[in-house]
Amino acid sequence: MTSAVATADRAKERTPLTDEDLLLLLMIRRFEEELLRLFGAGLLNGTTHTCLGQEYVPVALRTLIGLEDFVFSNHRGHGHYLARYQDLRGLLAEIMGREGAVCNGVGGSQHILRDRYLSTGVQGQSLPVAVGVALRLKHAEPGRLVCAHIGDGTWGEGSVYEALNMAALWRLPLLVVVEHNGIAQSTPTTAQMAGTIADRVKAFGIDHHRTESTDIGEIRAELDPMIQRSREASLPLVVEFATHRVGPHSKGDDTRPPDVIERAEAHDWHRSYATAFPERFAHADERARSLVEEVVAEVQDLPPAVWTEQ
Fold this sequence. Notes:
The protein has 12 helices and 9 strands. Helix 2 (19-40) packs across helix 4 (78-85) and helix 2 (19-40) crosses helix 12 (278-300). Strand 2 (113-114) and strand 3 (117-118) form a beta hairpin. It has a single domain (21-300), classed as Thiamin diphosphate (ThDP)-binding fold, Pyr/PP domains (Rossmann fold). The protein is an alpha/beta fold.
């Protein structure tokens, strides 16, 4: 079966998206594509790690994780932030170091703090902190939980296992979302991970669920009862998304063989939703492009952010 046929077959089974979900998916896609364009034009400094191909993960979770829950993001976190806040202007201003930035321009692309949301570029760093926050929520705000996003490459960090051990021992409301895209920067997961994530989680007696779906409705239906149980029973849960990174590791540094990139593109939610709902998709995509273009034009004209101690 060719990639195009496989994509079309998957598209036939898509559950309809709400207008809000579809627009949000496409806003994240167009925002990150614009970041790559701005880098290419020499208009951004530092680095950025896009989540192209993985946007559906935080969008699917956004109705299951509330603003009173804590979210710990990672270096590939623009989609996590935008799914939670829909704040194109504040995030772009942060990345460009302009007035109105979320963190006054000192966090850049990877390090964002807003309310109960924190992203960091240090692999594995967030899980021990998430355990501490989950312990506090268990006693002070029962029913709330902590969601921590990590990748398959992060399972090479000892802090992951220390955190899982404590979360299991103390029965904490911790949701670990693993975006398993099969590559850690430039190293295939098959070359650096023995066994499976499921078996590693099982060793701690923690529930694990793996999904290969990119269908928003299907994912929510799968995860809703599990996440509710994590909240109500105060238990850790690991959810593993078998996903695909369509874009480069950072900017233009994609070292994967062409066939691997082609396979990732064949699994892209973007293709299947465009095939399943062509008219709605085209309309939402035009709207998303327009919103992103407006924000880019506005932010580029803003003065530099001025740091003031809080």
